[in-house]
Automatic annotation (TrEMBL):
The keyword Cell inner membrane is annotated on this UniProt entry: no
Organism, scientific name: Streptomyces nondiastaticus
Predominant place of localization: membrane
Name of the protein this chain belongs to: ABC transporter ATP-binding protein
Recorded topology in the membrane: Multi-pass membrane protein
Domain of life: Bacteria
Domain ABC transmembrane type-1: 27-326
Length: 584
């Protein structure tokens, strides 16, 4: 999915809500930063005082800290000791405020980015299948992990560098002006030049950052795909194919990365030149002033210190321009996910209120057509299924059988026509309610890493161990887990590895039994199983389908026999009913 470029301000507005809970932390952090800037402004003064009052460079306008040097005595050594102590004290105060400011502001930045990451994942998970069909798993994962990470880096850089940098540069510029208007003018004149150079080529840098993030996302998708299909890769020795695709993707990342490096590298020498020019101007003007007795050497040292202090954060900022460009590109990609409409989060429609806890289980297809883009999967399907009926959908590959099941589950919206449950269109039903009424056992049961019991409980997280055990027994799961040392507590590997196909299906049936939904969808749950495994799975399914409305897709006679009616679908053509018409 290409992400359209979003203007800066629009993007800031989009993410502002995430910062709202941390306003107080942020404000406190700002306070600490102001104190730190004030302490930094005092830093050069002990040195100036030593020059003017101890080394005797001649102080026509003495250092304001001069009187403080006498606290330990008026001898030169005592004054030097007092100056050294002052240097340490000011540095300690500045460091303390720096620490507090970092903790507060970076903490707010970290918390805000954690909230963005959580929300992006939560939203992504709830987006409809039609969205996920258009994405790669790796690409989506890269948005949650890498893009949210880049947004976090930019936020933390904002809190720890950009904001304090602007604050201290402003403080130093103001202090230079207060010290002497001539010094101030030189300092202030340097600011626009530094800022101009800092943001120069911003658009090119941003374009490179976006290109890089897109390419990195595609690279992550390539890795995820190769690893998901690692058995096939090994079986066919397809490593070279993936190597070549990866190398091509890497070239894209590299060229975008080199462009970003170039944008960055061009700024630094220019910035160094501006800094050197400003320092030279100040040194010359300041030196002339000292020679003519307008101000003391200490003042000149302070002014030079202020100028260095003012330019340093601006230079640091420009070095971070890559982080900000990367953060903006990633923020656009995250915003694109968050802006996708999510029916699961839509407010419940008025007509859908007052639904019973449990549906009776009537399912109607009325003139239902379904297109995936320009591919037609179903054409004007009319079908009425009464509560408790078990209807088998048959037809050749691509006839739309699985699509019909997906429509009952509300995983897709029909392109035309309506699928109703107990008379209400699935589009009008709250997703949460619908999930409780419809459960499914698919061709391959997906199991998550965790215990077998965890996987059964997935259908109903609040189920008691006894309920989980009862479902496992009914689905004949305990028939094999009782032989395992940890029984239902046996841990499964990544993606539920460690069980045979038939065992996985039985765990899937136990899960569906625990869900206890009135409508059950079966999509080839026994295909790929040998005769013995099929016999056991069909026995377990027998308990699942009893007293429930069932829509099944199967070619296996053992399961077909359990159906009360059959409906044959023709590829993208009108449905043709055979056997006993269902519930008409
Ligand atoms: N997510 C999808 N995106 C695009 N096209 C799809 C998608 N799912 C299914 N299709 C297409 O819709 C048509 C119907 O697919 P469906 O899986 O519903 O058929 P089926 O009857 O269940 O097939 P099979 O017996 O092979 O499982 C096919 O042409 C298929 O390519």
């Amino acid at each position: 999915m290409r992400t359209p470029s979003t203007p800066h301000r629009q993007l800031l507005r989009f993410f502002r809500g995430f910062g709202a809970p941390y306003r107080r932390l942020f404000a406190l952090g700002v306070g600490m930063r102001l104190c730190e800037t004030a302490a930094d402004l005092v830093t050069p003064w002990p040195v100036a005082a030593v020059i003017d009052h101890v080394l005797g460079a001649g102080a026509s306008r003495g250092s304001p800290l001069g009187p403080l040097l006498g606290v330990l005595g008026t001898g030169r050594t005592a004054m030097l000791t007092a100056a050294a102590a002052l240097v340490v004290l000011v540095a300690l105060v500045s460091a303390a405020f720096d620490y507090a400011g970092d903790r507060l502001m970076n903490g707010a930045g970290e918390r805000m980015s954690a909230a963005i990451r959580r929300e992006t994942f939560a939203h992504l998970q709830r987006l409809p299948l039609s969205y996920h069909d258009r994405q790669t798993v790796g690409g989506s994962a890269s948005r949650v992990i890498t893009d949210c990470g880049a947004v976090k880096d930019a936020l933390v850089a904002f809190c720890s560098v950009l904001f304090p940098g602007v604050l201290s540069a402003t403080g130093y510029a103001a202090a230079l002006l207060v010290l002497d208007w001539r010094f101030g003018l030189i300092g202030v004149a340097a600011v626009p030049a530094v800022l101009f150079l800092g943001v120069r080529n911003r658009r090119r840098g941003h374009r490179a950052a976006r290109r890089r993030r897109e390419a990195e996302g595609e690279l992550t998708a390539l890795v995820a795909e190769a690893l998901q299909g690692i058995r096939t890769v090994h079986a066919f020795g397809g490593h070279g194919v993936h190597d070549r695709a990866f190398a091509a993707g890497s070239r894209g990342v590299l060229s975008a990365g080199l462009e970003a490096v170039d944008v960055q590298a061009r700024r630094v020498p220019l910035l160094e030149s501006v800094t050197a020019a400003a320092t030279a101007a100040l040194l010359w003007t300041g030196g002339v002033g000292v020679l003519r007795g307008w101000w003391s050497t200490g003042h000149l040292v302070v002014a030079l210190g202020y100028l260095t202090g003012m330019v340093a954060p601006l230079r640091a900022l420009s070095k971070l321009s890559g982080t900000f460009a990367q953060g903006q590109a990633s923020a656009e990609r995250v915003a694109a996910v968050l802006a996708e409409p999510c029916p699961l989060r839509a407010p419940v429609r008025a007509g859908a209120r007052g639904l019973p806890r449990r549906a009776r289980g009537r399912v109607d297809f009325a003139g239902v057509s379904m297109d995936y883009g320009d591919r037609r999967a179903l054409h004007r399907l009319d079908l009425k299924i009464a509560p408790g009926e078990r209807i088998a959908l048959t037809g050749p590959n691509g006839a739309g059988k699985s699509t019909a099941l997906a429509l009952v589950a509300g995983l897709y919206r029909p392109t035309r026509g309506t699928v109703r449950i107990d008379g209400t269109a699935t589009a009008d039903l709250p997703e949460e309610w619908l999930r409780r009424q419809v459960t499914a056992v698919l061709q391959e049961t997906f199991l998550f890493a965790g215990t077998i019991a965890d996987n059964i409980r997935y259908a109903r997280p609040d189920a008691s161990p006894r309920q989980v055990r009862a479902a496992a027994e009914a689905a004949l799961v305990t028939a094999f887990t009782d032989g395992f040392p940890d029984g239902l507590g046996t841990r499964l590997g990544d993606c539920g590895g460690g069980l045979s196909g038939g065992q996985r299906q039985r765990v899937g049936i136990a899960r569906a039994l625990l869900a206890d939904a009135p409508i059950v969808l079966l999509d080839e749950p026994t295909s790929g199983l040998d005769a013995e495994a099929e016999r056991l799975v069909v026995a377990a399914l027998g308990r699942l389908v009893a007293h429930r409305t069932v829509v099944m897709v199967t070619h296996r006679p053992a399961l077909l026999e359990t159906a009360t009616g059959t409906v044959a679908l023709a590829p993208a053509g009108p449905a043709r009913a055979t056997g006993r018409p269902a519930g008409r």
